[in-house]
Each structure stands twice: as structure tokens, then as C-alpha cells.
């Protein structure tokens, strides 16, 4: 197993609401892109064995050149395990000619009820060597903050 990056936070929403946001196309386009990026889903098949393709575009690529082109990261995500309100496993492959981004990175989104909310832990395994650890963990934390803002506004 290669490098492992992690981030987590408690979100003031139910596990059901958080899980729903992990498997809804419009929700993912809204909250998944970290700060400084916007995202667009090109293909969508939300079932085990299915997945999606997301194009992430840097708002200012000057300091963060993309993995796929100067301003974009294109990633194909395959869904592994989908356990309602508990866990989503994604397998990510970056579209890149650079071997530093090659391979399959597994992203596990673990959900656990915690008080009136949900503890969400994201574990990325086999992170490609070209992805800076600090930047990656900051990006995951940013996506988690976006997820929290998104679902906390919609949870009952």
C-alpha cells in the first residue's frame, strides 16, 4: 500500500443526509470541488460498479497547474462499496500523461453518527506521488467544509 492521506470533521447533519450528498450529482458538483476550483460531472452512474467523471477547473491555475491540462484535473471515479448512511468507497484515476499521477487512489468516506451530527472521515490510500500531501489534505478538508455548509443548510 502506498501513501495514506486523511481528513475528517463532524457535520451537523444526519448520516442519511450526508450519504445522500455523496451520491447526488448536483450536490457533488456543488460541494466536492475544493476552494479555488469548480467542478462539472460529465458522466454519472450512481451504483456499485458505476461511477462518474469529474472535470475540476482551477479558478487561477498560476500556482496550481492541473494534472490533465494547465487548468484542469480530470478524474474518473468508480464506486466500490456503497453502504447507505455508513460508507462510500471511490476509486479515482487521474487523466494525466505524467506518471507521477498514475495509479488508482481509493477514497473511503466513512460516516458515523455522533450526537446530533455525523463524523465524516475521508481516507485516501495509494495517493499518487505527484500529489503534495499538505495540498491534498487541505483539499479534502476544504471539500469537507463545503459538504458541511451544503448539508447543514438542508438537514432537518
TrEMBL record:
Matches recorded under Gene3D superfamilies: 3.30.530.20
Family matches, as InterPro entries: ASHA1/2-like_C (IPR013538), START-like_dom_sf (IPR023393)
Activator of Hsp90 ATPase homologue 1/2-like C-terminal domain sequence ranges: 13-152
Membership in a protein family: Belongs to the AHA1 family.
Protein name per its UniProtKB record: SRPBCC family protein
Source organism of this protein record: Streptomyces phaeolivaceus
Amino acid at each position: 500500500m502506498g501513501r495514506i492521506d486523511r481528513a475528517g470533521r463532524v457535520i451537523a447533519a444526519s448520516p442519511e443526509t450526508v450519504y445522500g450528498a455523496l451520491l447526488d450529482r448536483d450536490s457533488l458538483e456543488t460541494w466536492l470541488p475544493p476552494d479555488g476550483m469548480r467542478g462539472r460531472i460529465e458522466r454519472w452512474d450512481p451504483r456499485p460498479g458505476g461511477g462518474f467523471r469529474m472535470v475540476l477547473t482551477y479558478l487561477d491555475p498560476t500556482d496550481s497547474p492541473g494534472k490533465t491540462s494547465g487548468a484542469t484535473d480530470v478524474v474518473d471515479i468508480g464506486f466500490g462499496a456503497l453502504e447507505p448512511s455508513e460508507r462510500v468507497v471511490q476509486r479515482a484515476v487521474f487523466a494525466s500523461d505524467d506518471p507521477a499521477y498514475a495509479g488508482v487512489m481509493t477514497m473511503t468516506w466513512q460516516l458515523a453518527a455522533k450526537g446530533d451530527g455525523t463524523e465524516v472521515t475521508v481516507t485516501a490510500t495509494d495517493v499518487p506521488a505527484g500529489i503534495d500531501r499538505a495540498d491534498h489534505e487541505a483539499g479534502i478538508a476544504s471539500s469537507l467544509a463545503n459538504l458541511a455548509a451544503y448539508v447543514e443548510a438542508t438537514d432537518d
